[in-house]
Amino acid sequence: MRFRLVGVQPEFAEAVWPDAMAWLAPSIELSDGLLSPESLLDGVQNSALQLWIGVDENDMPAGAAITEVRSLPSGVQTVHSPVVGARQLEVVLDCVPTLAEWGREIGASKLTMDGRLGWQCALPGWRKVSVMMEKNIAGR
Predict the structure, then answer these.
(1) Of 64, 74, 113, 126, whose CB count within 10 A is highest?
(2) Among 18, 2, 123, 8, residue whose Cα is nearest residue 66
(3) Whether pTM exceeds 0.70
C-alpha cells in the first residue's frame, strides 16, 4: 500500500483545507452548486462531516475525501462520501480499507459514495445501487 488515509480533527480542518481543496475542487465544480467549499468546510468544523487526507509515503497530500455518517430510517448506518478527489486512482483504492475499518468501528455497515459513472468500473467490490438524476427548475 503506497497511500494511507488520515482523519483530520475539526479544529485543524481550516489549516489543511487548501491541500484538501486542491483535490476536491474539480468534483465540487461538477456538482453544479449542490456542494460548495464553504458549506463543506463548515460541516467539517461543526463535526457534521469528516475530512480525510490521503498521503503518500513521504506524508505529502495525494487526495482528499469528505464523509458523512448517515443513519437511515431502517436503522442501517452508512459512511457516505459526497466528494472525493485524488491524483490517481490508487490513492482511493489504498484508502478505502481504512475508511471501512473506521466505519465498522462506529457501527456502520456500508460505505456509499456519489460519483461519475466511471467510478463503478474503477472500484472493485462496489456495486451501483441507484442513479441520481437532476432537473434544474430554477427560473422559467
Answers:
(1) 64
(2) 8
(3) yes
